[in-house]
Amino acid sequence: MLRNLRRLLAILSLTASIVTCLGLLPIPFIGKLQLVPALIGLDVTMLVIILAATCLFGNIYCSIICPTGILQDIATHFTHNPRHYHQARTGYYIRPWVLAASVGAFLMGTGFVGWYVMQPLADPWSLFSRCLNAVRTLFASTDEITETWQIAVLWAHFAVLLIIVVASWRWGRVFCSRVCPIGFVLGHISIFSLFEIRFDASRCTACHECERKCKCSCMKPSIQFVDDARCVRCFNCIANCKQGALRYYYNDYYTSKINKLRYPTHRVWERRPKTDAASAAAPQEGDDRHEA
Amino acid sequence: MKHDPSRRRFLTAAASMLVAPVVAKAGEVAREVADTVRLDDGTVQVIVHGGRFNKQIHTVIDGQPSADRYFAIMPPCTINRERFHQLCIACHQCIAHCPEHILKPATTEYKNGKGLLQPTMSFERGYCRPSCRRCAEVCPTGAIQLVDVARKRADRLGWANFNSQTCVTVTQDVDCDACGRHCPHGAIQMIEKGGHKVPTIDVKLCTGCGACEFYCPARPKAICIEGLMY
């Protein structure tokens, strides 16, 4: 039910984005709904709405508003490639650096060329809108742009769009979990959100179905952990759990035994010898768990 | 009055002291010491680093000459360059929705690496209609301000400048008033000068909408828009 609601909102939002980005019909509202335009234009109302929604429901912005995220979700939908938690280890620490570079470029001001490079690359709305405008200009048979250099820029944008779609088809939401500074900020806010996806330890059989169906490779059923910094509340895990072991319920940040601010790396869990449940639960050296 | 060199020197020095801070401020904002001077025949000359050169240089794009502006034209209702570069997120919504197809992504139009991918104007396919606010309506950040139609009509994009060297009234000695007829603000009057009726631009009325440049039959364009400095 939650997944279908998410899908409905996401398809509405993406359709509006595509229609307005291809220049078919001006829908200004969908652009004003985005976070980076609200931040840069200081649209306080929209900022409060987005932040309040994130604090309540978690990172729903990335799954029902951000057009780049929804596009990747759709590409991910048409593949049977399983996503694994450990996939996200690669490049997991890129996002804070992208965020730092974007903020730094903003602070350096408009005289610095970094602002014109970081902002269009890192902002998902700007990237999506620009890529679709490139598609429109290249294939809609309008001879708007005729300079060779600008046509090269358009083809570069088309290539970026293809890379994002193919990479998400292959590995799921790659842009969001590696590059996007918006996803980084909202994800770390949503660690403390009121509602979050939680494992029911008594029901979970560690069948790893949720991990395979997760769009962001944020599920770790072996320790019953959801990486909220990447989870976009797509509810695929809840819809696919045959045991009903996953619930969208109140946050257990302060009662959980797992430190959710820290990322349990694949390396630590892979090195654990396969033993009985008691020794697996005991903390070991280099373990990212801590006693609450 | 008798010619007095010392008096002239004093006046020059006083004028320099008055003008110097203005020029310094201008250079600081534009990151380059440049100023535009309007001559009697309507041409605009750009002074850079003390040297003066006529900026009527034209490049040919796809067989059609396009004006090589020293200051690129921003979209309408952007208060100044600094604000526009800061607020624009280069999402190209204005480019996608411009009914005249005059906005295009900038590569090197804004100088010194500024404004990369942000929209700039060129008048090969139309001109900025005075009552059209489509770009402002779709702009998500407010970099292009959505103002009322009266303010949009009066918003200054740049100013027209005239080059008598390429105007067909001079080169081919024909009666042409394409720019004067199409100017939506009536800023251009055809005035007899040197045996030819050439356009004369009223600076107070001209908003730089580009109608004259778009309709000018001369190649390279005899009348073209120069963007604002700030």
Task: Note down, in words, how this protein is organized.
The complex is a heterodimer of chains A (292) and B (230). By secondary structure, chain A is mostly helical. In chain A, the strands form two sheets. A two-stranded antiparallel ribbon of chain A has the order 1-4. In chain A, strands 2-3 form a two-stranded antiparallel sheet. Chain A is built from 16 helices and four strands. Chain B has helices at 5-30, 81-87, 93-97, 134-138, 149-154, 168-171, 178-182, 211-215; strands spanning 34-38, 44-48, 51-54, 58-61, 64-67, 103-105, 119-121, 158-162, 188-193, 196-201, 223-227. In chain B, the strands form five sheets. In chain B, strands 1-2-3 form a three-stranded antiparallel β-sheet. Chain B is globular and about 60 Å long. The A-B interface holds A 20-23, 26, 28, 31-32, 34, 36-37, 40-41, 43, 109-111, 113, 115-117, 119-120, 123, 125-126, 129-130, 132-133, 136, 142, 144-147, 149-150, 153 and B 31, 61-62, 82, 85-87, 89-93, 95-97, 101, 104-105, 107, 112-118, 125, 134, 137-143.
Largest interface: A-B, 39 and 35 residues
**Percent of residues of chain B in beta strands?**
15-25%
Determine the mean pLDDT of chain A.
84
Characterize the largest beta sheet of chain B: strand count, sense, and whether it forms a barrel: 3 strands, antiparallel
In helices, the fraction of residues of chain B equals: 25-40%
Report the helical percentage of chain A.
40-55%
Cα-atom radius of gyration of chain B: 19 Å
Mean pLDDT of chain B: 78
Radius of gyration of chain A: 20 Å
**Oligomerization category of the chains in this entry:** heterodimer
Unreliable stretches covering 5 or more consecutive residues of chain A: 266-273, 285-292
**How are helices and strands ordered from N to C of chain B?**
HEEEEEHHEEHHEHHEEHE
Largest sheet of chain A: 2 strands, antiparallel
Strand order of the largest sheet of chain B: 1-2-3
Uncertain spans of chain B: 24-35, 39-43, 45-65
Q: Span from first to last CA of chain A?
A: 33 Å
Question: What is the count of DSSP helices of chain B, taking H or I runs of 4+ residues?
Answer: 8
Going by helix content, strand content and strand pairing, the class of chain B is alpha+beta
Please write the string of helix (H) and strand (E) elements of chain A: HHHHHHHHHHHHEHEEHEHH
